[in-house]
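Re: duplicated header lines in exported structure tokens

Our pipeline writes sequence and tokens for each protein into one text file. With two proteins the header for the second block appears twice in some exports. Here is an export where it did not happen, for reference. First protein block:
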Amino acid sequence: MYTLHHYDREDGAKARPFKPLDNGNRMGLLLLGVGALCIGVYLAFFFAA
């Protein structure tokens, strides 16, 4: 998980000067996915407890 995120962050940093829109879109999707994952885990623990 950490290695995947680190790879995406380095790839985004390299692609930023060339494709700012594409990089921003991918970062937005990544943040949305991480947020949804956190909410899902929180709800799972909430209902389990």
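Second protein block, exported in the same file:
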Amino acid sequence: MPSSTDTADEVVSSCSPPRKRSKKRHLSAEMKEIQREENEASTIKEIVVKVSHKVGVCRASVFNVLRQYKKNHTFSAPMTSKHRKSIVKSLDEADKHTIRRKVHEFFFRNEIPTIDKVLQEHLNFKWKKRGRNSLLLDREEIVLWRRDYLTKIGKYRNQNRKIYYLDETWVNAGHTTSKVWVDDSVTSSRRAFLDGLSTGLKNPAVLRFPGKGKRLIICHIGSEDGFVVDETGDYHEEMNGESFEQWFSKILPNLEENAVIVLDNAYHSRRMEKVPTTASRKVDVQNWLRSKNINFEEAMLKVQLLRIVKDHKAEYQKYAIDEMAASQNKTVLRLPPYHCELNPIELIWAEVKNYIAKHNTTFKFCDLKGLFKEALELITAQKWENCIKHVKDKVEKRMWELDNILEEQVEPFIIDIGASGSSDDESSSSSSFQ
């Protein structure tokens, strides 16, 4: 440690900052007092430079501490700000789906779901006012999409059209059961060796980093007859729109004529044509309108042109795979967002993943494909039929009832709000899907 006779320049040169700071440190009150006493002859600026280099914090923080001491004659560590994710951003799709189901349970009981009820009573969250809305509702677009889906799939069944359910899933190399039996009497590896026992099941390294490691992705499609025969061997480490479309084109000939294909909006949403958006240049919007022979005035603002685009874009927003299916006399029916429970194949994937978790003993990526194939072979047509029946008779029926219950609940609630003098009009209405 430099002596009190060292000059400020010598102190600075001998205390150059490290190239990499692994952890910030704060001097204790006692250390700060010692530093002050050892540098009585130094200027405040020299002291600040020295402390800043020693502790590894910026000079502004040191000046703040000195100002505090001058004012209160006491020292305390500066407050450090913590950047925490909001609750919403920390939720994955499974958590969001669970919350949605909880909200729907209120509707089925003919109760109004509020933030207080859902978050505090059922999810053990503290209630906190986040906005002006007091009632949890689906966006209008979601309600319309759900209603349209349920209407169409009912119509297709009445027409005796074959309905296939398509989806993709993935599994990490370390996928295994989360809970196992453990012998609590084995307290150490040495004790296990002396007693001729094991230390329990081997854990995959990826358990230390959930969601990490190599993963295997598979796309498949099935009906009440079971999985469709797929000779393409569509196992991937990565999946994108292009690879999905290649697989989809190969599986289409294996489907019955005039069939319906139910799927979600993951990789399947590539448009045949790009429609102008607010991010487009004005000249590009004008050129697009001209190419479609849509009339507009040259003096119009961009916002006016985009309004014209919005009125016509439905005619030009066809999906690539929808057109591929239509070319072979098949129809694509898309699930509403956040409604994976309407797809029976989700229940099938749960069975498949459960089998892999129980039989995955090597935790090696090269063995995953074999386990996947074994699991798929165990999924019989009867299993498919049971899953489809469950979705049809229970899930779809509850969803249909939900919309009716919701409408009955919302109307009187809105009247009460209006009577109280609060009017939000439609300022909080959600934007439509692109």
